[in-house]
Amino acid sequence: MLCVRAPGRVNLIGEHTDYNEGYVLPVALSLELRVHASPRSDTHCRVYSELLDEQYEFDLAALPAPDALPRGFIRYVAGVAWALQQHTGRTLTGIEATISSELPIGAGLSSSAALEAAFALLWNTLDNLGLERLVLAQLCQQAEHVYAGVHCGVMDQVAALLSEAGCALFVDTRTLFTQSIALPRDWAIVVADTGVPRTLAESAYNQRRAQCEEAVVALRPLLGEEVRALRDVSPEQGALYLPLLPEPIRQRARHVIGENARVLEFLNALAHADAARVRALMLASHASLRDDYEVSCPELNAMVDACMAAGAIGARLTGAGFGGACVALVEKSHLPEFLAQAERYYRQHARYEPRLIACEAAAGATRCV
Ligand code: GLA
Questions:
Q1: Does the beta carbon of 345 lie inside 6 Å of ligand 1?
Q2: Mean pLDDT over residues 300-317, rounded?
């Protein structure tokens, strides 16, 4: 029997930048899922989710196409098997696996990347594939593209596999350079789930990505062929050239260009534990996601207000948006009052039941101890 754990994540700043080859700063959470698996002597897989009380089976020697599988967790598992087999040219070992999870599904905490990371690590171990974590992360991303149909960036998978405990993970998603960034010890990370299930997330996400690509195509004749992605456009160039673009492409590009710059400033603010700067940057990120990128919703806005009214250092929506959760940074000494006040405020301003959880910054996927 082999047991693997993998964490959920929040992103402190750098939202919708990863598929624009930009910067992100996720943190792996002490909220995690676990997979217990026993190898079989054949290529058959039977996977049971305790949380959903659902079980599915497939065969690694004749992997079903994505559409032949029901939507949901099994697509991620089969997708990871597909990506690993494609990459290695090998047929993996069949398993009897059980998934247990404390990660809410659809809260924007990337339970899907955690699932992918766990199964990637599981087969990497069982079959002695010897693949590095960064390669596993990229294969998990491919699994998501092909088997879940979401053209996501690589942030969530890198966070789920490469994070270090106590740290956020800076990722340059173009070069895949990563660096662990220690978090101030007296700051807690609070996940503030709005209770609003993410809706239209897949189609709206893919549409935002396509709009960013359109912006690049429109900017290239103005700025030169070396502009490969919005990552290559500076805020100064943006100020000059974005007014020439039509809406909504202009707004989308303005968010991405500004957000990339905010990540770099945020690193500096964190290094100095500069709470005022952290607050300003998180709130500017949220406003940009709300107004320019248009991926927020009234409840996410109410939750940011609730967190700020309750004394957070900073707060913003985290992940793709369209429902899900906010992340707040909070002085640890102030946590109990913060949690009570923020919940009260949110209940007065939204119809959904909030769930606020104070988390530690955890390590990426590992074998269970
Ligand atoms: C989802 C995707 C990530 C990233 C975020 C938005 O979580 O999986 O790749 O694009 O949305 O920042």
A1: no
A2: 98
What are the pLDDT digits (tens) for 108-120? 999 999 999 999 9
Between the CA of 109 and the centroid of ligand 1 the distance, in Å, is 10
pLDDT tens digits, 43-53: 999 999 999 99
Question: At 339, is the pLDDT very low, low, confident or very high (cuts 50, 70, 90)?
Answer: very high
pTM, to two decimals: 0.97
Does the beta carbon of 152 sit less than 6 angstroms from any atom of ligand 1? yes
Mutate to test the pocket of ligand 1, among 18, 76, 203, 256 (most ligand atoms within 8 A of CB): 18
Looking at every residue in the chain, the average pLDDT score rounds to 97
From the CB of 171, is ligand 1 less than 6 Å away? no
Domain range annotation of the chain: 2-182, 187-359
Q: For the domain covering 2-182, report its CATH number.
A: 3.30.230.10
Query: How confident is the model at residue 113, as a pLDDT?
Result: 97
Residue 6's closest CA among 146, 110, 145?
110
Q: Is 319 in the pocket of ligand 1 (CB under 6 A)?
A: yes
Task: Please determine, for residue 369, whether its predicted confidence score (pLDDT) is greater than 90.
Answer: no
Across the beta sheet with 167-172, the strand order is 23-24, 167-172, 177-182
Report how far ligand 1's centroid is from the alpha carbon of 319 (Å). Answer: 5
CATH of domain 187-359: 3.30.70.890
Please determine whether the domains at 2-182 and 187-359 fall in the same fold group of CATH: no
Ligand 1: which atom is nearest the Cα of residue 18?
Answer: 10
**Is 90 exceeded by the pLDDT of residue 199?**
no
What pLDDT, on the 0 to 100 scale, is given for residue 200?
59
The pLDDT of residue 110 is 95
